[in-house]
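Async update (no meeting this week)

Hi team, since we skipped the sync, here's where things stand on the single-chain job. The sequence we agreed to prioritize is pasted below, unchanged from the tracker. I ran it this morning and attached the output directly underneath so nobody has to dig for it. Comments welcome in thread, and please keep replies under the output.
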Amino acid sequence: MTERKSIFKVAGIGEILWDMLPDGKKLGGAPANFAYHAGALGAESYAISAVGEDSLGNEILDQLARNNLTVEYIEKSMTHPTGTVDVQLDENGKPDFTIHQDVAWDYISFPAHVADLAGKLDAICFGSLAQRSDISRKSIHQVLEATPSNCLRIFDINLRQMYYNDMIIEKSLQQANCFKLNEDEFPIVAEMFGLQGSEEEILEKFLMNFDLQIIALTKGAEGSILYTGKDSSFVKSAKVEVIDTIGAGDSFTAAMAVGLLRDLPLKTIHEQATNLSAFVCTQNGAMPVIPKAIIENFI
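Output:
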């Protein structure tokens, strides 16, 4: 019998940046948020991205190190600045983003040590935003192609402004075996591919058309769905006092990934992902310190 792994290697590839919130800047970027939370839950976790050779970039590298994430796979650009995003929050803590262009993470490359890491990964998370750049998009897909055949390749779509198109979404779904999206993105992507019917019928069509193992559909305060075709789970969102929702979806994705790697029951994975994301909503920023009780319960 093959012994199951106890430590899994996971990575998030794409944007890393400062969210410029009304009360100050917070480290963010969906793939980096994913890597942080997966690491907090016990995975050997990496962020693959780029920052500028500037004070904001140095601060990112310092904070990643303090959060126990290696900076070996974060490039430093001499020609492009560290990414920033202006964030405004509505009365429910839901963010509105203004994402600045032509920044370091638009120029992620594919060096040999990143290729080596890709070949050892058990899971990788990527989105659509960093693919707005031809350079980063090519590198992201090179990394995906270098992963083992049994690697979880999670497309957390993360539609932002107009930084996506049909080609980016379709190619990403073809590369992925796990798909995560929210209630705002669901009708946009369904219309993009001409999919009609009930929610479950559309999820089934995505699953079959793109050979996916699982789809996660998060629906804000209403709850979320995990759907595998053979099994499905619905969990209501926990009622918490929301400070902001930044990073909550990324923490959900990380918990789902680690749970799938540990081969936990679908409902258990779902409940743990929901609990972690609910906690993140009660905190400022995307990378809060996770209480030991949540981590121990997850493990």
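Quick observations from my side:
The chain has ten helices and 13 strands.
The chain has one domain: 9-298.
Reply here if anything looks off.
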